[in-house]
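Troubleshooting log. The previous structure file for this entry was overwritten by mistake, so regenerating from the original sequence record. Sequence copied from the archived sheet and checked twice against the printout by T.R.
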Amino acid sequence: MGTGASKRTQYGSHGGEEPEEEEEYLDQGGGGQLYVSLKMENNYKLKKGELLPHVFGSVPLVGSWDSSKALSMERESTSMWELSFVVPPNHETLDFKFLLKSKYNTNALCVIEEGPNRQLIGGALQGDARLALFRLSSDEVLEYRVFIKADRVSPFDLAASWRAYQENLRPSAVRGIPDVSLGSVPETGGENSSSATLELDLEHYVIPAPSASGHHVYAANMTETPRSLTLSGVFTNSDGSTGSSYTFKDSGIPVDRPATKKEMEVVIPDSSKMYSSSGMVESKSVGTLSPFQKQDGHRGLFVDRGVGSPRLVKSSSSSAFSTEPRKDTETKNSMPEAAGAVAAAAIADQMLGPKEDVHLAIVLVGLPARGKTFTAAKLTRYLRWLGHDTKHFNVGKYRRLKHGANQTADFFRADNPEGMEARNEVAALAFDDMVSWMHEGGQVGIFDATNSTKKRRNMLMKMAEGNCKIIFLETICNDERIIERNIRLKIQQSPDYAEEPDFEAGCKDFKDRLTYYEKVYEPVEEGSYIKMIDMVSGHGGQIQVNNISGYLPGRIVFFLVNTHLTPRPILLTRHGESMDNVRGRIGGDHALSDAGELYAKKLGNFVEKRLKLERAASIWTSTLERAILTAAPISGFPKIQWRALDEIYSGVCDGMTYDEIKKNMPEEYEARKKDKLRYRYPRGESYLDVIQRLEPVIIELERQRAPVVVISHQAVLRALYAYFADRPLKEIPHIEMPLHTIIEIQMGVTGVQEKRYKLMD
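Regenerated output below.
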C-alpha cells in the first residue's frame, strides 16, 4: 500500500508502441488506473503516546468504515505523513476520512476529523478541503494540512513500479530488514534513554580535526608549483609567515612552441614533497598493469590481482611497453592507477588509441568568476581518488609568481601588448610544465585559465600536438547573483587583492578586468569540448558535449553532470562498537556492544538536533547489522541501505583476529603489512576494490542537495574521507577513523571544510 507508481511517460514500456495507441488504450478503460497519494502535514512534535494519522473509508481501498481497521499513514519526513494506493477502474468513487490513533495503544479511542466525508470521483477531489481539523477537547483542536493528488497511470507503469518496490523494499533474505525504510520510527517504549541525553550545545562535542582542511583555502594556491622557477631569497606572506621567493629562468622560450626538456629543467625541490602535507602527492605509476613478453610478434596484458606487480614503463619506442626493473626509491612511491574496470578501460585506451590519447589535458575556458578553479579542483580530486595521476596547473599562479600579485585591471586589457605578451608567456610555461610532467608518467592535466580567445586556444592545441589530447571545458554562468557572489569571494580569497585594503575598490578593479575579458571572449566551437551552462547554481542548467569518446572522458562528463555547488553537510560516522570490535575480530556481522548501543542513542539525539531544520536529509547505512542497529534510534528521516557501504570483505580471514592471521597465515600477514592499499585478502577485497565499488556512492553524494548521514565501517569511511579531504591513495589504509566520532564535511562554494564531534570517550 505504501508504494508509489511512476507517472505515465510519453512512451510506455510496452515494446515501442506509439503514444497515440497508448492514449486510446487508456481512454477505452482497458486498464488505465488512478494512482492516489494522500498526505498530511503538521508542525506538532510527536511524543510517546501521541496520536498518529490514519485513513479509513470505503471498502476495499482503505480498509473499511471500521476505525479499528483504519490504515496507518507512513512517515515521509519529520512533519509529513503519506499513504498511496491504486484505484481500479471499477471503483473510481472513493469516500474516506482521516483520523488519529494512538501508536502504542491500539484499543484507545480515536479522533475522527470534523466535517463531511471526503469524496474523490474520477481522480477529482470534491470541494476544497485543504485542512483536517481534529477536536481533542472543547478547547483543543489540532490542525493538519492536507494534500491529495491523483494521476492516471498505465498498467505498464504500475508493473514497473511494483518491480522496483519488490527489488528495493522487500525484506532481505538475511535478517528480514528492508533495504530501504522510509520514515521508520523506532520502538522505544519502556527504554531508559536518559543516559543518551545530548547537551543542547553541539559545540561541546567538537574536537580538533587532524589537518587544516577545516580552513578556507584559495583553491588556486593548492595547484601545481611552477617547475621553471629558481629559488631566490625569502619573502613574507600576508599572514606573516615566510617562504622562498621564485623567479622564472630567462629561457627565451617563444610562446608559440613547446620548450625542450633541457629548457624546462627543474631547479626547485620535487613538488610532490612540498605538498605532501596537503595531500597533493605526485603519483608516478601508471597502474597495476603489466605486459607479458612478446611472443610471435603479439603482445598480451594482464591485470594484477594482488601485491607487487611490475610497473608498466614506456620504452624508447612509442609503440612498445616493457617491464623494466625500478629502483627501490621509485617503487616505494609508485601508485596504482586503478582497479578492476578502471584498469581494463585503461588498457583499452592505451593499447587501441593514438599516442597522445594516453595523456589527457582538460583545458578550462570561461570568463572570470564562473567557477573554473573550483570545478578544476573538484575534478582533480575525483580523478586522483579513482587512481588516475592528475595535476592541476593554474596559470594565475604562474602569473603572480613572475609578475607579482598586485596587477591592476589594465594588465588584462586586450589592447595592452605588454600585458598580452606576459600572459601568453606564463600560459605557455604552464602548458610546457604540464607536458613535461606527462612525459614522466602523468596522465591527466587540468589547465586552469580563462583561455577566452580562439587565438589562445589554437596556441595550446599546437603545443599539444603529439603530446596529449585536449578537451576544452567551458563554464558559462548567466546568473548575475552567482557572479556577484563569486566576485566577492574572489576579492576575499585571491592573492591578487591581498594588499588591497579597500574591499569595494578591489571589487571595482575586478569588474573592470571582467569587462576587458568580455569584450574579446569567444565561446568554444572547435575541437573536443564540454560546455557547462548554468550548472553552478545546482538548479537545472545543461551540459553540451562535442566529439567526446573514451572511458576517462566519459567518466569526466558523468561526474560533471552530477556535481553542483549547493552547500550541504555530509556526516560520516562508524557504527557503534560491535561485539567483534570488543573481541578484536575483523569482518563478521554481529550486534552492538553496550557501548555501541549507547552511541546509537547519542547519535540519534545528535542527528535530530543537528538536522532539525533539514526535512530532506537522509540516512545511509551498510547492509550489515551493526550499521543498521546504529541507525535505528534516528527517527524522522528516510533510511537507505547500500551494499556498497559494507565493510571491506576479508575473505577467508573473516572473523579472525590479526594475531590469528599472523600465526596461521604468516605470508598473508606480511603481504598485507607490506602494502595495505593493494593487498587483497584471499577470496576477499583490497582497498582499491573498495574504492571502485564506492564510486557510485561518491557520485550520489555529489548529486545530493540535502544533508546525508553515512553510517558505515572503518575501511569504507577511510576511502570516502580521502575523497573529500583530497588525501593520496597510499594514505587511505592509514587514515585514523575513530569509533563514536562524527566527521562533518561541509560542501559548498568555498570548497570542503571539516568539523569533528566526539560523542563518547
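The mean pLDDT is 74. Archived copy saved in two places this time.
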